Amino acid sequence: MTVNEVCGSGMKAVILAKQLIQLGEAEVLIAGGIENMSQAPKLQRFNYETESYDAPFSSMMYDGLTDAFSGQAMGLTAENVAEKYHVTREEQDQFSVHSQLKAAQAQAEGIFADEIAPLEVSGTLVEKDEGIRPNSSVEKLGTLKTVFKEDGTVTAGNASTINDGASALIIASQEYAEAHGLPYLAIIRDSVEVGIDPAYMGISPIKAIQKLLARNQLTTEEIDLYEINEAFAATSIVVQRELSLPEEKVNIYGGGISLGHAIGATGARLLTSLSYQLNQKEKKYGVASLCIGGGLGLAMLLERPQQKKNSRFYQMSPEERLASLLNEGQISADTKKEFENTALSSQIANHMIENQISETEVPMGVGLHLTVDETDYLVPMATEEPSVIAALSNGAKIAQGFKTVSQQRLMRGQIVFYDVADPESLIDKLQVREAEIFQQAELSYPSIVKRGGGLRDLQYRAFDESFVSVDFLVDVKDAMGANIVNAMLEGVAELFREWFAEQKILFSILSNYATESVVTMKTAIPVSRLSKGSNGREIAEKIVLASRYASLDPYRAVTHNKGIMNGIEAVVLATGNDTRAVSASCHAFAVKEGRYQGLTSWTLDGEQLIGEISVPLALATVGGATKVLPKSQAAADLLAVTDAKELSRVVAAVGLAQNLAALRALVSEGIQKGHMALQARSLAMTVGATGKEVEAVAQQLKRQKTMNQDRALAILNDLRKQ
C-alpha cells in the first residue's frame, strides 16, 4: 500500500505493517519511505473556466513543505515556536553546528556503515550521507538570511536540508523470525499518534512521547536513546527542553539538520538508526518520534532483544559466560561458585568491562591525621598491601600538616601529523589560524565551555622523522576529560584535513602524561618530632641522605617512588579514578630531567626537615567510575572534597606523608620492623587461621626469630590442640 503522511510517512508505513501482522493478515513485510526532493516536478492546475493551465508551482512546496490547514510554509510554524518559547537565533545556530559535528564524527568513524546500503547512481557509488557539513560554525551560520520572516530566526542553516533519500525495514512477527532463524535488531513495543495546534506542529513529539511513555508506564529517564527528527533547530530545542532530555541521549549521531530530512523516508530512517544504536550501545529502550505537518506527531518505542544462548562469548551475560567456562572444563564447580560470589551489581560490572564474569575484592581502609591547607581529611584507601594505610596515618601525624605550593589542572591532547616535508611551514600556517582552531574546539564540545572549561592553549612540537604534534591544553573542570579532549581533537582534525589536504594525520588522542596537572605540596617538620628516643636530628639527616640517593640511583628511586605510589594509587583506586594513567604519568615525570629519580625531596633548614613532592595528577570527581561504582561514591562522601583540584591536593599530600613514614622507618629501625605485625596477621590468615585465631597466631609469630608459613602453621595446629 502507498502511504502519504508527509514527514510521518516512513514511520506510518512501519506502524501499518505492524498492525497487519498483529491482525494476522501478514507475517513479514517491507515497510519504509522514499523522497526525491531535488527532482520534485512543478505542477499546473487546469482551470476549467478559462480552459487553460494556471502558473506552475512546486510540488515539493505544495505537498511537503506547506501546512495543509493554514496554507503557510512549515518554517513559519518553527518561527511561532521560537517566539513562544523564546528560542534565540544563536541557540538555533549552536544546536545546528552541534548536529553537524556529531554526524561528521560518526561518519568518520564508520558508524553509519552498517545501516547504509551502497547504491550506484550514474556510475558513482553512493555510500554515505552527502549533506553533512563538518566545517559549520556559528559565525558562518550567523551570516545567513532568514527564510520565512524578515525579522525571524529560522534560516537554511538551522533547518533540515532539502535532499533525496530512502529507508526501509523488514518487519516480521517474532514467531516468524525465530522459526526461520532470522536475527532481529529491535522489537516494536508500542506506537502512538497525536494531534496539536498546527501553528506549533514542530513540537508535537512532546505530546507523542509523553503519551507513549505513560501508556507503557515508563519515564523519560528509563529510555536510553532518543531519535527525534530535527526538522528545525527551534522546535528540536523546545522538545528536548520541555521533556528534560539529556543531550547525550538525543540524536547522538546527528539528525535532520546534518543528515538530511528526505520527508517520506525520515520516519523509517529514524527507526533504522535507533535500532542500530541500541545494539551498538547495548541499551534496552529507545524512542523515535517526529512532527508532521498539520499538527500530527508520531512516536514509537523500541526494545533491544535479549541475547540468545548460542551467542558469542562477548555477547553472553556473566552467568552464561560462567556456565560456558564450566561446561568446557575451563573451571571447576567450586571456582564457578567463587566467581559468583560478588558484591557489585552485575548491571554495573557487566557494562564497565568486556567479558565480565566476577570481581576482585580489595580492602578499603581509612587514613587518619591528614591535614592539607588547614583542612582535616579522612582518607579512603583501597589496597591489598599491609602497612600502607598505617604509614600514611603515621606520616601525616608526624608532619601535622601539608601546604600547597602550586597547582595546575589542564589535560593535554595531541593531533599528530606524519611525513611532514616542512614542519616549520606547517606550524606557521597553524599559528596563523589559531582563532579558528579555538572556535572549532569549542563547537566540538560546547557543554564543557558552558561549565567554564574548554581549550586554553595550543603548543606545537616537531620531531625527527618528520612528525609534528599539535598539543591542545584543555580545562575539563572536574571531569576525567578523555571524552571531552578526544571529541575536540576529532572535531579539529576534520578541520585540519580540509585545510591541509596534502598532509597526513596519524592520530588524534589524549595524552596521559599530565604535565599541566602538576601539584606541588610541602611540609616542614621539627626534627624533634622524628625522634625515636633522642635521635631526631640524626634521623632527619639520614632522611635527607636517602632522598639524595634516590635522585642518583634509579634502582633505589624505583623503590622510593613505589612507596609513594602505595598511598597515591590507594586513594586513586578508592575514588574510582584511573590508577594506570596516574601511575604512568608519575613514573614518566620521575624521568623528566633525563634520568629516573625520586618524586620527593627532603632538605634540612636549621632544626626543620623540609619535604616537597611534585606529581602530575589528572584526577576527577565526576564521570567514569567515580559516579558508577557505589563504593567510589561512598569513598567520595567520606573524603568530602569539593572538586577535582582539592582531590589532587589531598592525593599529593598522601604521597608525601607516605614517603616520610617509609624513609623514617628505613633509616632508623629498618622497614621490616614496621611491617612485622601486619605480616604476622597475613601469614596467620594464609595458613587458615580465622576469627580470634588470627591475632593469637600473629602474637606468637612476632616472638619467633623467623616468621614464615611453616612456623605459622605449627602455631595454629598447637592452638587447635589446646
TrEMBL record:
It comes from Enterococcus sp. Gf1. The keyword Acyltransferase applies. NCBIfam families: AcCoA-C-Actrans, HMG_CoA_R_NAD. InterPro entries: HMG_CoA_Rdtase, HMG_CoA_Rdtase_bac-typ, HMG_CoA_Rdtase_cat_sf, HMG_CoA_Rdtase_CS, HMG_CoA_Rdtase_NAD(P)-bd_sf, HMG_CoA_Rdtase_sub-bd_dom_sf, Thiolase, Thiolase-like. It is an enzyme of class 2 (transferase). GO terms for molecular function: acetyl-CoA C-acetyltransferase activity; hydroxymethylglutaryl-CoA reductase (NADPH) activity. Belongs to the HMG-CoA reductase family. This is acetyl-CoA C-acetyltransferase. Residues 184-304 form the Thiolase C-terminal domain. Keywords: Acyltransferase, Oxidoreductase, Transferase. SUPFAM superfamilies: NAD-binding domain of HMG-CoA reductase, Substrate-binding domain of HMG-CoA reductase, Thiolase-like. PANTHER family: ACETYL-COA ACETYLTRANSFERASE, CYTOSOLIC, ACETYL-COA C-ACYLTRANSFERASE. The keyword Oxidoreductase applies. Its EC number is 2.3.1.9. Residues 1-174 form the Thiolase N-terminal domain. It comes from the Bacteria. GO terms for biological process: coenzyme A metabolic process. CDD domains: HMG-CoA_reductase_classII (cd00644), thiolase (cd00751).
